[in-house]
Structures are given as C-alpha cells and as structure tokens.
Amino acid sequence: MKEEIKSCHLGPEISPEQFIPEHIFLYLAKGLMLGYDGSKKYTLKPDEYCLLRKNRLARYNKQKENGDYEKVAVIFDEVFLRKFQQKHKISATKSPLAETFIPIEKNKLIPDFVRSLKPYYKGEGKIDKIFADVKREELLIIILQSQPELAGVFFDFGIPEKINLEEFMNRNYKFNVGIERFAFMTGRSLSAFKRDFKYIFNDSPSHWLVQKRLQEAYFLIEEKNRKPSEIYIELGFENLSHFSFAFKKSFGQTPGELTGKKRNSTAKN
C-alpha cells in the first residue's frame, strides 16, 4: 500500500491556513508529523492515526523519512456528517474531550481500510469521486464502532461560544489566521470582535498581532539565541522577507543584524 498509494485525501479541499474548519482523520504512512495547538505538542509516527478537530487552531509540520512523506487524510465536512447522522439515526451529546489532536485507538480495521483504497486511487492525491463518500462512510462506521463516544465530537454542529478574548488572543497570537477566524473562535461577529479588542488592548487586531509577534521574535533571538529562519513561521509570518521587513521597521535593524550583534557580543565575552 505505502508504495502504491501516495499521500491522498477524501472529501472537500481544506484551506492551508492554521485553522481546522472541518474534522480531519489523518493516517500517517511514512515520515513524521509534529503538531501544536497553542498549548500542547503532538507527534504522529508511521502507521499511527488521529482526528484533527474542527474549529480549532493548529500548526503541523511534516518531516520526511528517507525522502518520503505519505499520508491519507479523510475530511468529514458538516454536510456529509449531517447526512450520515440522519441515515444512521445517531443521537449524540456534546463531548467533554478537549484535545485538538484526538488519538484514535489502534484498530486492525483501519489499516485494512487504508489498503482498501488502492483500487479507487487515481493518483495525484485523489480517490475516484464516485466512491469517496462510500469510503468516508465506511471509515466513520469503523471509528464509531470502536469509539462511540466520538459521536459527541463528530455530530456537534454548534458554533464557538463567547469566551474571554484577552486570554484567547494572548495564547493564540502566533497562529497565522485571519481576523475573521479569531472573531469566530471567540464567539463574536467581526464588528463585535474589533470593538471588544479595542476596549481590551487599546489597539487594532492587525497592528497588535504584528507587534506581539515581533516582540516575541526579538526575545527569542536576543535571549534564546534562536535563528530568524527557525522562528518566523512559528510566529505566524508567511515568509522570511515579510518578517525581516516588519522587524526592521519596528526595531531599526533586521533579525539577521540582531543575530550578528548577539554573536559578536558573545564572542567578546
């Protein structure tokens, strides 16, 4: 299977931003996946699998193994889940589970399921659309038979409730998502989010986010000896050039220049 089914997915396309809009089942065939949800780190190894929970912030980095990284991702979008719930007449109460990366218990049916995708695999990361929903339904049945408590996760169609905005932003400012996402996740309309943000931080969300990330960057370079190329992505900047430009505008020097001064100072001492 691993040699013939390369990384593929079933279900609708998912935005590459660091927000999970739909539940995602992830099976790792080769390589390593390192995940972070703002408070906890996760590691997924070959032949392991998990559920990435919708309406959460997450950053996950892939590491190749002998030049390879292969995964199978199955997206359980709300439209599909509502149809599934109606068809199978499943009732569910809200789950108390808090994890963003929810572990799926070892189940011999899941590797069998992944192998069963082979006849339908058309290459280029796709399974024949005609069979996609059938296979998604099969997988969901396997998961729910093994862990029925996950029904409370899959079939929770509510939207995030209003939460403490100051606490949330100070914990999640490093994630590269739009202001609209932050508003949604704090249970607010965009206008209410901007109003509350101004009242709490006396600043606009966009300006505050950039300055907060830059302050953290300065600290990491100056105090922790981190390299600019190592930190710009984890701080929510899209590319190194944008990070360097914003850093110099704020501190009068580029991250590289600060690194050089730090190195020279250390050498003299």
TrEMBL record:
Signal sequence coordinates: none
Keyword Disulfide bond: no
Superkingdom, natural source: Bacteria
Domain HTH araC/xylS-type: residue ranges: 163-261
Molecular-function GO terms, alphabetical: DNA-binding transcription factor activity; sequence-specific DNA binding
Pfam families, A to Z: ExsA_N, HTH_18
Gene3D superfamilies: Homeodomain-like
Keywords for this protein: DNA-binding, Transcription, Transcription regulation
PROSITE patterns linked to this entry: HTH_ARAC_FAMILY_2
Entry protein name: Helix-turn-helix domain-containing protein
Organism encoding this protein: Maribellus comscasis
